[in-house]
Amino acid sequence: MTTTTLEKSGVTDQAAATVEFLGLRREFGPTVALDGFDLTVRPGELLALLGPSGCGKTTALRMLAGFEHPDSGEMLLDGQDVTRVPAHRRDAGMVFQSYSLFPHLSAVDNVAFGLRMRKVRTVERRSRAVELLDLVGLGDKGERFPHQLSGGQQQRVALARALALRPRVLLLDEPLSALDAKVRLTLREEIRRLQQELGITTLFVTHDQEEALSMADRVAVMRAGKLEQCAPPAELYGRPATAFVAEFVGTMSRIPGRMHGTSVEVLGQRFPADGEAPATADVDVLVRPEAVNVAADEHGSARVVATAFLGAATRLTVRLADGTEVKADLPTHEAATLGAGTAVRMSLPDRPVLVAER
After folding, report:
1. In angstroms, rounded to a whole number, what is the distance separating the alpha carbons of residues 329 and 358?
2. How confident is residue 10, by pLDDT bands cut at 50, 70 and 90?
3. What does the pLDDT read at residue 14?
4. Sequence-ordered list of residues with C-beta below 8 angstroms from that of 225, at least 6 positions apart, any chain
5. Is residue 89 very low, low, confident or very high in pLDDT (cuts 50, 70, 90)?
6. 42, 65, 100, 309: most buried, per Cβ within 10 A?
């Protein structure tokens, strides 16, 4: 993809926008979809909205697109209130999970459809549609109809259609979830590369942790209509702000511990508590599999109950004397002698640990 292609397509004409959600609330009968939702999306970044089903992420995206309206709160685009602005007057392009292509229109006519609705001249809209199809790698597929395209190709057409209107914000609503794993991996890499080259502010809704962590500049984790934490992927994984984030993002084990002031005793060791410690004495310490040290010990009270080969690493499931099961990732060559039934001892590295109420 060349700079000339980007310039010809026209999608780089407008500056990237800042998006602000301010205290959004939305109720659907007794269900509260958004409950005082606050979030700022920086110009030109790709921000993923991540969370379980029903957490409000798609509602927030649809509100920004203009398809839903909040009961209270505001949405700002570069400081301008767009809360009540009709969808067709917002500088936002949206790509849906289901592609939503017109089956009776060719790929090039699907891309040009929004331009036709805006009364753009026939020659100009076709020229722009052809250039955008080339931008997404489908320059030779313009005359094909949706049923003649693969799922990944259809989603590329949908992406080109969203970009045709030269939006300042691109909204992606789980656009990869209907694709098979290999196509999903390829397309997410292409979307990320395209977004970076265009510099367009992008919100990406997904329930797939790997997708969010691999694509986004920052990830906003939502729960019950509220924002739990918004941070770059490495910070979100390594320094989760809450127990919910810790357990939702990646794999996390809970090991019983006991508070002693601001430190916690676990596995016979003491560590400072990372963040605010619970008021209760009996707590759980949350640890990632790669942070657990495991060594064979014939006098150890813990035992390996299962192993799973992950390539360079092997994941052990270790059962403590009290029945607690802990996941531990070891280099495969180190785990080779730690088969099921092996007595082991466990320890944690000397650093602050995340503590949660039991």
Report:
1. 24
2. low
3. 58
4. 25, 26, 32, 33, 34, 35, 36, 37, 55, 56
5. confident
6. 65
Residue 4 pLDDT > 50: no
Token pair of 19 as six digits: 């998006």
pLDDT band at 67 (very low <50, low <70, confident <90, very high): very high
The model's pLDDT over 141-152, given as tens digits with 9 standing for 90+, comes to: 889 999 999 888
Q: Return the pLDDT at 8.
A: 47
Q: E strand or H helix at 65, and its extent?
A: helix 57-65
CB of 268 within 8 A of CB of 344?
no
Only one residue has tokens 């064979």, namely 296
Q: What is the DSSP letter of 89?
A: G
CA dihedral 52→54→57→62, nearest 10 degrees, is: 150
Q: Is residue 259 classed as helix, strand or coil in its secondary structure?
A: strand
pLDDT for 160 beyond 60: yes
Find, among 254, 195, 194, 250, the residue nearest to 221 by Cα: 250
- Whether the CA torsion 151, 153, 158, 159 is positive or negative: it is positive
CA atoms of 195 and 329, how far apart (whole Å): 34
Whole-Å CA distances, 87 to 69, 118, 277: 10, 13, 45
Backbone angles phi, psi at 68, to 5 degrees: -130, 155
Distance CA 198, CA 248 (A): 31
